[in-house]
């Protein structure tokens, strides 16, 4: 039997916990959920299999969002100088208006920044009945006349797909008409795919098809990389850029935090791709490698040690002693401040437990930060990951292509005749690999988690509440929808999608911010006020003197 | 500048909405449904809408918002969502055990034409609705109206529960409209003071302003019960507060069950509250107690004391029609000047009503309530004719900062402030609070801007 690895006062084993979570479900639901709840055995040579990226069960209150949210919200949302028009009724555009806390810095006062704007065709019933293409065309024209942006992107919402508006044709027509404005569209209707992950894929494909490779004029620099899967929530991207700059590494393009049209267009000029969020973008890294010859490595800037490790990884790829030394200098310079805060906080966080149920990579990355605080992650899982995010990339070839995945276009990519340029020779790559640098590699979450931890895919509200009741973690991390029900149970909840109000948490300064934030959350006095004195001691054992 | 691309010169737009002053129907239906006791709202469509609606309501109310979804994928979108909904109803009653499920559609299920009454009928026949449990519903296509329409449609869904036994129960139905939990509580308090026995629906007080106690209740104590909703058919009459949010439900009771109704303005500010209290008194045949007159007098007192700071100050507003109408009346009644008003919620009567309320002013207000009546337009109007104060939801904060105008947050959604769940802005007490907010905004601004020699210690 799996040993209990939870809190001191929990006597339940992981298996019993799993049973408890499933007990109330109708049999069909229980069978399905059982495959998505896994007790981590962390076996030496094989990782247990988990079911992921499958449909949400109707009626089960899910944490997931939709394809449109992944496409417009996550991937294109942080791009500042593209006018993003939602084609559909007003809601979708409204809800994705500034709600993800993507920060941007438009530098010059006259630089384009459309992130504070919400553009929508606000379809009305006559557009649904007679088709919305005319209105879309007019909306694109109006946006062009008003702003003259470099790019206009169009996003389809549920009804658009159903009524069959050809948004791509409209976009192509307008692009040809304008000549100086790149217009393209995304078929990211909410019902496509089983989660927002499908939307990431659709967004990335279109950016790759319509934008990457258009501008050969990248930024100058000796060590030039792209950062993939970093969305600058709460300013994370700023902190990573600060560190890279300090090391002398040039970031050509971030996909897509604080990003611009030109950055995407010239991203093919980089010499290395560093992948942060594996889920949202791993296929782009592959495509950039195949088409332009840029190798990729997985990095993680969440956690001070992880950030240091990632910097060393980047340095060892370029292999120049100058960079290697500079990276060590930077780490040496940054770490004392981080350690000082960690030491200050640790006595108050050591031994505490956390649960993390977030998007595609954060449920993994943030475990590093908790480790640095001496905290244990007793349960974790993703909202919309695929099996490779849990088990590592070696499972990719065996992933089943089901009807839902078939909806999402897979781009056929081949080396670009003009632009393909291997960044390293085969020998160089082999040498790097034998020195320990792994390319195209990601082991996933499971091997990093402790034996006996409970890994759950697509956690829902019912299970979340049960888990918290049974295991009473000291902190729970998820999204806004989960925040208050968890806190009602007396457990502090930190949003890891949009960070509540804080950040940055990436890099060295981010680690300091996070240590302080977690200290505050798990040690706030408020959690001691849940019961009034008369509720804690209801029996009347004595009377006041004046009686 | 946050909105650096907004030009001064007005351009006609016919197709592009920029920074909308409305959102879509289902979120209104979801909010209304939370005002039914033991109710789990259910969104019949793909799960993204539900996630968005829950997130936005959570951010506004700072409370857990639970709701189910039919989780459509491509298959359901093509073949119809009946199977998903049946399965969802079954799962929901088994796992969460609500008293009521309130189903609303999204633009997806509306576009494919799912027939809710038919599916729910089937659910009932198939035994998927346990004995003693209920399913109510509303059609809420997002390409018609706005979140306000969705609210109104779900209210009508509640009214459908009412039955008439032929015996009047002496109660008065009150449909409060889309106001805060604290406002609903205040309306109940006022009615109790006048001594009127009421049935209020929806009622989110006690549901969306709950305590932190270490216990999570998916279904808190508050909310109108199904029993009360049934009884609403025997009430002596209905007061519907707000034409857009509440009138449909009230008229439905009137035409189907002969429960007469009066449609009033939402009781924001002095005059609308006066009419509300007066109507309560008349329908229930009560006299208004001294305490109510006392509260009223306090509000009049504050208006007279602070008049110099309000007098002829210009205000720009964005929001929902029922709120805007009442607020416009309140502002003009204290001699402020509502100058620019937008509402994304359409409705022919809106503009006329605002014109009527502002007829005595020495200028014509800018007022618009259609698709391009958005915050972009409002901003352009402000650039051309600046104002002293902004009132509306959180999304006005960018304009407030760019143009350096104080903002009173009011309406939906308020994502960046608290208090709206707990302190009412309706009724006389609410009027005091509104004035306090307006005054603080104007005076903070004055304290910041006054030259040193003119910097005042006393009001
Ligand atoms: S798809 Fe329709 S119902 Fe859903 S969020 Fe968008 S507008 Fe609202
Ligand atoms: S961690 Fe999740 S929410 Fe965040 S970008 Fe990655 S996939 Fe998206």
From TrEMBL, chain A:
Catalytic activity line of the entry: N2 + 8 reduced [2Fe-2S]-[ferredoxin] + 16 ATP + 16 H2O = H2 + 8 oxidized [2Fe-2S]-[ferredoxin] + 2 NH4(+) + 16 ADP + 16 phosphate + 6 H(+)
Source superkingdom: Bacteria
Gene Ontology CC: one annotated term: molybdenum-iron nitrogenase complex
Top-level EC class as recorded in UniProt: oxidoreductase
EC number: 1.18.6.1
Keyword Transmembrane: no
UniProt KW keywords: ATP-binding, Iron, Iron-sulfur, Metal-binding, Molybdenum, Nitrogen fixation, Nucleotide-binding, Oxidoreductase
PROSITE patterns the UniProt entry points to: NITROGENASE_1_1, NITROGENASE_1_2
A molecular function (GO) term: ATP binding
Iron-sulfur keyword on record: yes
Sequence ranges assigned to domain Nitrogenase/oxidoreductase component in this UniProt record: 66-522
Required cofactor(s): [8Fe-7S] cluster; [7Fe-Mo-9S-C-homocitryl] cluster
Family matches, as SUPFAM superfamilies: Helical backbone' metal receptor
Subunit structure and binding partners: Tetramer of two alpha and two beta chains. Forms complex with the iron protein (nitrogenase component 2).
Similarity comment: family membership: Belongs to the NifD/NifK/NifE/NifN family.
Function: This molybdenum-iron protein is part of the nitrogenase complex that catalyzes the key enzymatic reactions in nitrogen fixation.
Protein name according to UniProt: Nitrogenase protein alpha chain
Organism of derivation: Desulfarculus baarsii (strain ATCC 33931 / DSM 2075 / LMG 7858 / VKM B-1802 / 2st14)
Taxonomy of the source species: Bacteria, Pseudomonadati, Thermodesulfobacteriota, Desulfarculia, Desulfarculales
UniProtKB/TrEMBL annotation, chain B:
Described purpose of this protein according to its UniProt entry: This molybdenum-iron protein is part of the nitrogenase complex that catalyzes the key enzymatic reactions in nitrogen fixation.
Family: Belongs to the NifD/NifK/NifE/NifN family.
The reaction(s) this protein catalyses: N2 + 8 reduced [2Fe-2S]-[ferredoxin] + 16 ATP + 16 H2O = H2 + 8 oxidized [2Fe-2S]-[ferredoxin] + 2 NH4(+) + 16 ADP + 16 phosphate + 6 H(+)
Cofactor needs: [8Fe-7S] cluster
Protein's recorded name: Nitrogenase molybdenum-iron protein beta chain
Domain Nitrogenase/oxidoreductase component: 24-442
Keywords assigned by UniProt, alphabetized: ATP-binding, Iron, Iron-sulfur, Metal-binding, Nitrogen fixation, Nucleotide-binding, Oxidoreductase
Gene Ontology CC, one term: molybdenum-iron nitrogenase complex
GO molecular function, one term: metal ion binding
Taxonomy, superkingdom: Bacteria
Origin species: Desulfarculus baarsii (strain ATCC 33931 / DSM 2075 / LMG 7858 / VKM B-1802 / 2st14)
A Pfam family it matches: Oxidored_nitro
Note accompanying the cofactor annotation: Binds 1 [8Fe-7S] cluster per heterodimer.
Summary of subunit composition and partner proteins: Tetramer of two alpha and two beta chains. Forms complex with the iron protein (nitrogenase component 2).
EC numbers on record: 1.18.6.1
């Amino acid at each position: 039997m799996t040993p209990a690895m939870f809190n001191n006062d929990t006597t339940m084993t992981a298996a019993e916990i799993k049973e408890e979570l499933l007990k109330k479900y109708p049999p069909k639901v229980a069978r399905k959920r059982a495959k998505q709840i896994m007790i981590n055995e962390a076996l030496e040579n094989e990782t247990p299999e988990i079911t992921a990226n499958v449909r949400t069960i109707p009626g089960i209150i899910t944490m997931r969002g939709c394809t449109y949210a992944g496409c417009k919200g996550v991937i294109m949302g942080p791009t500042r100088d593209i006018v993003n028009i939602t084609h559909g009724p007003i809601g979708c555009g409204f809800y994705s208006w500034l709600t993800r806390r993507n920060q941007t810095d438009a530098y010059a006062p006259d630089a384009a920044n459309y992130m504070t704007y919400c553009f929508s065709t606000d379809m009305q019933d006559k557009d649904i009945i007679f088709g919305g293409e005319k209105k879309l065309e007019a909306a694109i024209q109006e946006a062009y006349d008003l702003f003259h942006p470099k790019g206009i992107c169009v996003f389809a919402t549920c009804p658009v797909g159903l009524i069959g508006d050809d948004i791509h044709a409209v976009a192509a027509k307008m692009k040809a008409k304008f000549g100086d404005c790149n217009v393209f569209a995304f078929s990211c209707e909410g019902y496509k795919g089983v989660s927002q992950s499908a939307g990431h894929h659709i967004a990335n494909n279109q950016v790759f098809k319509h934008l990457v490779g258009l501008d050969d004029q990248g930024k100058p620099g000796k060590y030039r990389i792209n950062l993939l899967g970093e969305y600058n929530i709460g300013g994370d991207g700023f902190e990573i850029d600060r560190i890279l700059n300090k090391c002398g590494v040039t970031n050509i393009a971030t996909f897509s935090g604080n990003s611009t049209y030109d950055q995407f267009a010239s991203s093919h000029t980089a010499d290395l791709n560093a992948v942060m969020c594996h889920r949202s973008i791993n296929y782009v890294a592959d495509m950039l490698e195949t088409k332009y010859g840029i190798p990729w490595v997985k990095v993680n800037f969440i956690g001070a040690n992880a950030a240091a490790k990632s910097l060393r990884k980047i340095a060892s790829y370029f292999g120049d002693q100058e960079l290697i030394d500079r990276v060590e200098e930077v780490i040496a310079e940054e770490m004392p401040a981080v350690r000082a805060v960690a030491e200050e906080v640790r006595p108050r966080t050591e031994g505490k437990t956390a649960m993390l149920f977030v998007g595609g990579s954060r449920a993994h990355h943030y475990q590093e930060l908790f480790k640095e605080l001496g905290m244990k992650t007793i349960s974790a899982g993703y909202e919309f990951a695929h099996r490779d995010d849990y088990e590592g990339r070696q499972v990719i070839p065996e992933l089943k292509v089901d009807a839902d995945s078939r909806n999402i276009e897979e781009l056929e990519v081949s080396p670009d005749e003009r632009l393909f340029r291997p960044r390293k020779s085969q020998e160089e790559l082999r040498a790097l690999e034998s020195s320990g640098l792994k390319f195209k590699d990601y082991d996933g979450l499971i091997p990093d988690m402790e034996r006996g931890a409970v890994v759950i895919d697509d956690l829902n509200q019912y299970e979340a509440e049960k888990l918290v009741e049974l295991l009473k973690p000291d902190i729970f991390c998820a999204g806004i929808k989960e925040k208050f029900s968890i806190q009602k149970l007396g457990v502090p909840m930190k949003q890891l999608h949009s960070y509540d109000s804080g950040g940055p948490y990436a890099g060295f300064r981010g680690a300091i911010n996070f240590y302080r934030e977690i200290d505050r959350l798990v040690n706030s006095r408020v959690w001691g006020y849940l019961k009034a004195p008369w509720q804690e001691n209801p029996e009347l054992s004595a009377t006041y003197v004046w009686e | 500048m946050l909105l650096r691309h907004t030009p001064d010169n007005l351009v006609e737009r016919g197709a592009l909405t920029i920074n909308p002053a409305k959102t879509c129907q289902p979120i209104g239906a979801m909010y209304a449904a939370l005002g039914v006791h033991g109710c789990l709202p259910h969104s019949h469509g793909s799960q993204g809408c539900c996630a968005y609606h829950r997130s936005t309501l959570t951010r506004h109310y700072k409370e857990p918002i639970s709701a189910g979804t039919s989780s459509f994928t491509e298959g359901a979108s093509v073949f119809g969502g009946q199977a998903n909904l049946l399965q969802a109803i079954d799962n929901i009653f088994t796992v969460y055990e609500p008293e009521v499920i309130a189903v609303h559609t999204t633009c997806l299920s509306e576009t494919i034409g799912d027939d809710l009454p038919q599916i729910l009928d089937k659910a009932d026949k198939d035994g998927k609705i346990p004995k003693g449990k209920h399913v109510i519903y509303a059609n809420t296509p997002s390409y018609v109206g706005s979140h306000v329409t969705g609210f109104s449609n779900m209210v009508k869904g509640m009214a459908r529960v009412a039955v008439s036994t032929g015996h009047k129960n002496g109660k008065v139905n009150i449909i409060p409209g889309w106001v805060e939990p604290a406002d609903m509580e205040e309306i109940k308090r006022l009615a109790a003071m006048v001594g009127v026995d009421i049935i209020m629906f929806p009622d989110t007080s006690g549901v969306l302003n709950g305590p932190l106690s270490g216990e999570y209740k998916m279904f808190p104590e508050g909310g109108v019960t199904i029993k009360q909703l049934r009884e609403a058919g025997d009430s002596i009459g209905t007061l519907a507060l707000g034409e857009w949010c509440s009138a449909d439900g009230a008229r439905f009771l009137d035409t189907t069950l002969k429960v007469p109704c009066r449609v009033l303005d939402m009781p924001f500010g002095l005059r609308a509250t006066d009419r509300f209290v007066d109507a309560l008194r008349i329908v229930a045949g009560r006299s208004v107690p001294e305490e109510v007159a006392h509260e009223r007098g306090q509000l009049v007192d504050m208006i007279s004391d602070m008049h110099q700071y309000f007098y002829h100050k210009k205000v720009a507003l964005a929001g929902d029609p029922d709120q805007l109408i009442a607020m416009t009346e309140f502002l003009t009644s204290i001699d402020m000047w509502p100058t620019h008003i937008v509402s994304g919620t359409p409705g022919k009567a809106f503009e006329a009503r605002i014109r009527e309320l502002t007829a005595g002013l020495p200028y014509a207000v800018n007022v618009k309530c259609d698709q391009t009546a958005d915050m972009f337009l409002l901003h352009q109007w402000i650039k051309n004719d600046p104002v002293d104060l902004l009132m509306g939801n959180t999304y006005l904060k960018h304009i407030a900062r760019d143009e350096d105008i104080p903002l009173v947050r009011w309406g939906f959604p308020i994502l960046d402030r608290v208090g709206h769940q707990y302190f009412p802005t309706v009724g006389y007490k609410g009027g005091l609070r509104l004035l306090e907010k307006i005054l603080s905004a104007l005076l903070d601004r004055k304290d910041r801007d006054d030259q040193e020699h003119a910097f005042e210690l006393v009001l």
